C-alpha cells in the first residue's frame, strides 16, 4: 500500500512556476540548493524514501523506494527481478505529491520528476506513466507523456548500477519512441559537477522562467 511521503522543500527564490522532485530530501538538499541559484523560479520538493527491508542487504530496513533482489548487469535484472509492487507503490506516492502541486496551481506541464539511483528509476517510471501530462522527466507508458523529454546521466565506472544496465534502460526507453538524452561521465556511483551543470541546462531549456 502506498504511503504518504515526508519531504524537504526548497522554495523558489522567485515566484515558482515549476516543481522538481528528488529522491532523498536531506541528502540532496545541498545539491538542489546550488541548482536553485541558476533556477530561481523552480521549487524543489525532495521526498524521503520510505524505510523498508532490502533483500540484498540481508533484509535490513533502510530508506528504499523498492526492494532490490539482486545486483548485476544482465537483462534479467531489468526484466524478471524487479520489485514491481514496490515500484508501483512508490509511483503512487510520488503522484500524490504531483497532485498536491497541481492543486496548488502549478500546471502539470511545468513539473519535472527526477532522482538519483533508485530515485532515478522511480522518476523515469513516474514521468512516462503518470496520469498527468508532465513536461519532462529526469532519467508502463501512457500517451499523455509520449513526448516527454528524458535526461539520463550515468557514470561509466558505476559498480552499484552497472553502466550496461543504464545503457539497456536507455535503449529500451528510446525503442518506445521517447525523446531521451543519455550522457556519460567518468565517475562511479555518485554525482559530478559536470553532470549537475548538464541537468541545470536541461531544466533551463524545458522549464524556462519565461514561457
From TrEMBL:
Enzyme class comes to hydrolase
Check the record and name the Pfam families matching this protein: Abhydrolase_2
What are the UniProt keywords, alphabetically? Hydrolase
Task: Give the superkingdom in one word.
Answer: Eukaryota
What EC number is given for this enzyme?
3.1.2.22
Q: Which GO terms describe its molecular function?
A: carboxylic ester hydrolase activity; palmitoyl-(protein) hydrolase activity
Residues forming the Phospholipase/carboxylesterase/thioesterase domain are: 20-206
Gene3D superfamilies registered for this protein in UniProt: alpha/beta hydrolase (3.40.50.1820)
**One CC-aspect GO term:** cytoplasm
The record's annotation in InterPro entries points to: AB_hydrolase_fold, LYPA1-2/EST-like, PLipase/COase/thioEstase
Q: Which reaction does it catalyse?
A: S-hexadecanoyl-L-cysteinyl-[protein] + H2O = L-cysteinyl-[protein] + hexadecanoate + H(+)
Q: Which family does it belong to?
A: Belongs to the AB hydrolase superfamily. AB hydrolase 2 family.
Write out the function statement from the record: Hydrolyzes fatty acids from S-acylated cysteine residues in proteins with a strong preference for palmitoylated G-alpha proteins over other acyl substrates. Mediates the deacylation of G-alpha proteins such as GPA1 in vivo, but has weak or no activity toward palmitoylated Ras proteins. Has weak lysophospholipase activity in vitro; however such activity may not exist in vivo.
Under which name does UniProt file this protein?
Answer: Acyl-protein thioesterase 1
Q: Which organism is it from?
A: Funneliformis caledonium
Task: List the top taxonomic levels of the source.
Answer: Eukaryota, Fungi, Fungi incertae sedis, Mucoromycota, Glomeromycotina
